[in-house]
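Just wondering, can you check both lines?
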Amino acid sequence: MRFRWIAAAGILVSAAQIICAADPGLVSLAMPDARIMAGIDVEQTRRSPFGQYVMSEIAEREPGLQLLIDATGFDPLHDLREILLASPGQAGSRSGVILARGTFDVARITGAVLSQGQTAGTYKGVEILSSKTGKDSLAFLDGTLAIAGDDADVRAAIDRRSASSGIGADLAAQVNQLSTTEDAWFVTLVPPAQLQNFGATLSKVQQANGGVKFGTSVVLTAQTVSQTDKDATALAETLKMLANVAQISSPKGWVASTAGLLQNLSVAAAGQTTTVSLSVPEQQVEQIIKASQSNGHHRLAAAPAQPANPPLLP
């Protein structure tokens, strides 16, 4: 009897992990040579206190949202479930796709896009909506799955519907782990220095991953893998030094409040891995956002008005 209870508990834990992991239907459409991936469990985030706060802020402050809903019947605050981004991570390349799971009124969205002068075509039975330049495309495999990105990448993702290949084992393992434990996450197997210029210490980083978990506290975690143990230790010491400088020299106002959060920052090195974590009470995050909005109100007031009918595709 005891064994059966233990086995049942193990099955429940495994099932919970499968349910929380990234949508396999989305992952299967990522390019096999993907080296960078990121995702957000929109449904889970929406249920969190922070998600509720962000939704209310967007609904109140973004006038274009209602225009989008009226034109397409699509409400991103309620109709999205999960978003996944994938890219080979090639320097200087715009290659990549955005994969989304949700509820889409395909006919209505298509009509709204075509009414703005964009074009539509069919590829392997899937209607593709293209921008006026033809470089960017949007396709719906069905009423629950959307693909957006460079036209060639969108068509390649459609091809992968029936392909047996998947992303690499190393990337797949990290995606599964992070998407099981985090609400929003990222993985890059590409050295960040190949994508952006960094200082000498950060240039030694070979790969990185991280995530955010929303709850009564917002918990951020990140890990980097450096070339050597010494490089990982140097990175940890650099991050600690920068945090101390920020706390000491930060000016008054919301920037100072943000710097004060660094008191909760934890940085440690073990072998080639540097781990960073930060836990902030959710209400404190809200206060910082409100303070930053108040500080930048005069800049927002001077910003140009949005067009009455913003384009649905670039």
Summary: The chain has one domain: 22-297. The two ends are 61 Å apart (CA to CA). The chain has a mean pLDDT of 83. The first strand starts at residue 36 and ends at 41.
